Amino acid sequence: MTVTLADVAARAQVSPATVSRVLNGNYPVAASTRERVLRAVDELDYVLNGPASALAAATSDLVGILVNDIADPFFGIMAGAIQSEIGGPGGRAGGERLAVVCNTGGSAERELTYLTLLQRQRAAAVVLTGGAVENTAHAEAVATKLRKLADAGTKIVLCGRPPAPADTDAVALTFDNRGGGQQLTEHLIGLGHRRMGYIAGPEERTTTRHRLEGHRAALAAHGVPDNPDWTVHGRYDRRAGYEATLELLRRDPELTAVVAANDTVALGACAAVRDSGLRIPDDVSVVGFDDLPFSIDAVPALTTVRLPLADAGARAGRIAMGREEAPPGGIATIRGELMVRGSTGAPKNS
Amino acid sequence: MTVTLADVAARAQVSPATVSRVLNGNYPVAASTRERVLRAVDELDYVLNGPASALAAATSDLVGILVNDIADPFFGIMAGAIQSEIGGPGGRAGGERLAVVCNTGGSAERELTYLTLLQRQRAAAVVLTGGAVENTAHAEAVATKLRKLADAGTKIVLCGRPPAPADTDAVALTFDNRGGGQQLTEHLIGLGHRRMGYIAGPEERTTTRHRLEGHRAALAAHGVPDNPDWTVHGRYDRRAGYEATLELLRRDPELTAVVAANDTVALGACAAVRDSGLRIPDDVSVVGFDDLPFSIDAVPALTTVRLPLADAGARAGRIAMGREEAPPGGIATIRGELMVRGSTGAPKNS
DNA sequence: CTGTTAGCGCTTTCAC
DNA sequence: GTGAAAGCGCTAACAG
């Protein structure tokens, strides 16, 4: 009932092999033959059987994209950019790759499971986005998995994630979270802030640690005192930002600034500051990280560090497809850009 | 070099068929045998060949999700919810479905191309999210494609999209965009507004048309005059909202409210209102649509219509997997809920 | 409950 | 430039 390549071959009066060759366009075929085949394909409304060709060719045209949370624009933007470069429709013929988006929810276990599932699909490439879980056992398990994938011919690219062990053959486009965190806090210090609350992301995450390290490095470099009470951990969402800010303000009502792990958290922080009857930035300055699209529309607009998410994703996609060379050493560090806006100002009593 | 099912069978001293059965868990196998097989799988570090099983079984465990723009949380939230229900890791064994997210960018052509690609993959199900392009030729082409997919055993679910022709066998979970638009405008009318600007989405989109119809129905029902000059079309992004608002205000500085096609557009509208030196809602009220997470953090918080995106996505996912019954007639209308917040108030001179 | 037997539909050497 | 033939690795009747 379903049309197969053999049917097309019969109709075009050629062998199945020839049909395969014109369909894949990776082999010389006489122009007249090609046209005859294409016509037959059309007339028969033939659709290639993906699994069958993947089986025979030992590779599929699926590209895996691992994200923590696809509902978060941070990941959505990267995923969209990656997808646009892996040659979806509109790309040159034959390069119709499909993106398999895997939501790990930040769980190490699910990350591994998805990697296995992608291995099972014989994915052409896998792009892992965002920070990694910091846990030796898990890191080793992931590295092992990546090695297996690479051995099976799957190209691995890390986008916005620290490099994996060199023997995994994974190309890494890493965000300079440490540097960004440092810039943000230095900006605040420059404004005169000395008592700053810090809302960190979930523990055991590279992104969380690096941003926090940047913050602390800035404090240390400028001799500004740190205080364990001024740091709180939470999820990367608005709710966590709201609650953490309330807690921070309760612990120390004298805080003049709140540094949030990312923009989403910062939005929650802004709400908490306002709900506490304080003004931004007059009473409390707030900063975020990432510069997601809505950040400029916060009131006042959020001071933050802009990460070129779309560019990074696009580049990762091209590298995954072998359409762009990997950076020297397989590692590139992508810096963020400090965006100073209305949510930060000099502290009142400075 | 790569381990196959036959290797596992040999090691476990059973037939390949038995191994297949324990792996798929859809057939009775003696507990002791199962365990032996599982052990062999483990020892050999065996990973099933997806394409091979898809070929043999004539169906894959891929589920396609068509979205206009995955970077937009409107789609990201639905996609995430769908994915969480199609039995990713954590689901019961054997139900490891992968989500293939396809970004159509709102292009009818790419939508069709992706549908073909999904057909090629023998996708188990396809979920089409968001509004459809309004164009007879295209609608017919899509319907034809859906029929073919359904014939091949692919389950089709529409999520947040108007029903397709009945013979496509597509289940539809439709958002009541018309009703939501009407509620919003009635709320404004109730407040005393009589001169309202409307920023519509792109033309030729069902969502755009329905929301606008709701707006106009409300105007008509209350005898409030409409004016062609008060409607502007644009993309569903902040920039479009910003520019459209400036244009609207230029055309009629007396406008007391701006109705935006969605929250993202509303954010841009708010910025434009403020940049024009006007206050929200004192001078101009602004409303959005969707109630995306950031909407409550706008200042003032956005009055909007909440769409249960996550619930709808989850339900679509379950229906696609056959884990929930389709609604009677294959169509369910999902209503939004009016969320009255600070961005709307009575007009000044009312 | 388990083994045997055929393919599923395509790609790919290897000849011609 | 094109054809023939041999699988790729798995599932699904059908027996037993």
In short:
With 350 residues, chain A is of the alpha/beta class.
Furnish the topology, listing elements before pairings.
2 copies of one chain form a homodimer.
Chain A: H1 5-12, H2 16-24, H3 31-44, H4 50-57, E1 62-67, H5 73-85, E2 98-103, H6 108-120, E3 125-129, H7 136-151, E4 155-159, E5 171-175, H8 177-191, E6 196-200, H9 206-221, E7 231-233, H10 238-251, E8 257-260, H11 263-275, E9 285-287, E10 304-306, H12 309-320, E11 331-334, E12 337-339
Parallel strand pairs in A: 1-2, 1-3, 3-4, 4-5, 5-11, 6-7, 6-8, 8-9
Antiparallel strand pairs in A: 10-12
Chain A binds a DNA duplex (16 and 16 nucleotides) through residues 2, 4-6, 14-21, 24, 27-30, 33, 48-49, 51-58.
Task: Explain the overall architecture.
- 2 copies of one chain form a homodimer.
- The first copy, chain A, is an alpha/beta fold and about 350 residues long.
- Chain A has helices spanning about 5-10, 15-25, 30-45, 50-55, 75-85, 110-120, 135-150, 175-190, 205-220, 240-250, 265-275, 310-320, and strands at about 60-65, 100-105, 125-130, 155-160, 170-175, 195-200, 230-235, 255-260, 285, 305, 330-335, 335-340.
- In chain A, strands 2-1-3-4-5-11 form a 6-stranded parallel sheet, with helices on both faces. Chain A has a 4-stranded parallel sheet with strand order 7-6-8-9, sandwiched between helices.
- In chain A, helix 11 (about 265-275) links the parallel strand 8 and strand 9 (about 285).
- Chain A is elongated and about 85 Å long.
- The interface between A and B is large, with 59 and 58 residues.
- The structure holds a DNA duplex (16 and 16 nucleotides).
